[in-house]
Write a structure and sequence with these properties.
Elements: E1 3-8, H1 17-26, E2 31-34, H2 43-53, E3 58-65, H3 71-84, E4 89-94, H4 98-103, H5 111-126, E5 131-134, E6 139-143, E7 155-158, H6 162-171, E8 174-177, H7 183-199, E9 207-216, H8 220-230, E10 241-243, H9 245-258, E11 262-266, H10 274-290
Helix pairs in contact: 1-2, 1-10, 3-5, 5-6, 6-7, 7-9, 9-10
């Protein structure tokens, strides 16, 4: 079944995160995700703060830029967090914005090669294996975590272009699709992921997480236009869930039917009343649960 949550954008100051996480849990949402955008807020620090402020809410980070992070450090952080807060974290990695990676001297010539090396090494480290690798970007010499997670930790990878989306199916446990994705794009991505997984001989479930702009109430369409411009979205990517709570719920259903396993609603970057927006998102989730479209939240 599809789960539903919200995103806390780094356009909000870090000191607002704990209250936002508490509000999300109180509203009955399943998840809250944070970003790691340069040069704003640390994804790992924000993730841990939100976990510590809540009891049952799952917290995700989408995404941790692979060029910025040695894979062993990423594995150590993920394993530590999982042992501290078992089963409550969701981790996504990705290319990062290439211009930002260039600003810090971390831009790689082949992001696809980096993902192909990085994600399998990360998954093996989290599984408690000793890993040796001598790749173009990932080099490890008999590295094994002393404190691996006690349970399985899925590694999700972000993709936008067709090659990256296919690669996420080949190497990762799930795919994160960014803001500006439509239900039709999700359906196409799911097909591409399935073909890639089949060609790689992989089977079993593959998560698909999608970020969706959302705005409630009269005038939502006009208010969202400025957000589209802020994100430089063009054409069919100028897509959002807009209107009353029933209209937003229908968009979430559309994404679920297209194959999304998690739908994360994203407020405007400078939403003036995030608490009220969160309450409305929670009412959307409640509507969907009433019709059996979302799992019940943990007590």
């Amino acid at each position: 079944m599809t789960s539903m949550g919200m995103i806390f954008q780094p356009s909000f100051p870090p000191e607002r995160l704990r209250a936002a996480a508490v509000d999300a849990e109180r509203a009955g949402l399943d998840e809250l995700w944070v970003f790691e955008d340069c040069f704003k807020e640390s994804g790992i620090a924000a993730l841990v703060a939100a976990l510590a402020a809540t009891s049952n809410l799952r917290i995700g980070v989408g995404i941790l830029p692979m060029p910025l992070r040695n894979v062993a450090i990423t594995a150590m952080e993920m394993a530590t967090i999982e042992r501290l807060f078992p089963g409550r974290s969701r981790f996504g990695v990705g290319h990062g914005v290439l211009d930002w990676m260039g600003q810090v001297g971390a831009r790689v010539a082949s992001p696809l090669t980096l993902m192909r090396e990085y994600v399998p090494a990360l998954r093996r480290l989290l599984a408690g294996e000793e890993v040796t690798a001598d790749g173009r970007y990932v080099r490890l010499d008999r590295v094994r975590l002393d404190w691996p997670p006690e349970g399985r930790v899925p590694v999700l990878a972000a993709g936008e272009g067709p090659k990256t989306i296919a690669l996420t199916g080949e190497v990762a446990d799930g795919t994160v699709l960014t803001t500006g994705t439509t239900p039709a794009m999700v359906r196409s991505a799911v097909e591409r992921i399935g073909a890639s997984r089949g060609a790689a001989g992989r089977s079993g479930a593959h998560e698909v997480v999608v970020f969706v702009n959302a705005e409630f109430g009269p005038g939502a369409e006009e208010r969202m236009e400025a957000e589209f411009d802020l994100w430089h979205l063009e054409g069919e990517r100028r897509f959002a869930a807009m209107g009353d709570e029933d209209a937003v719920a229908q968009v979430v259903r559309d994404f679920a039917e297209a194959g999304a396993t998690t739908v994360l609603l994203q407020s405007r970057s400078h939403e003036p009343d995030l608490a009220a927006w969160t309450e409305q998102a929670g009412r959307v989730a409640a509507r969907l649960r009433q019709h059996g479209r979302l799992p019940e939240t943990s007590p």
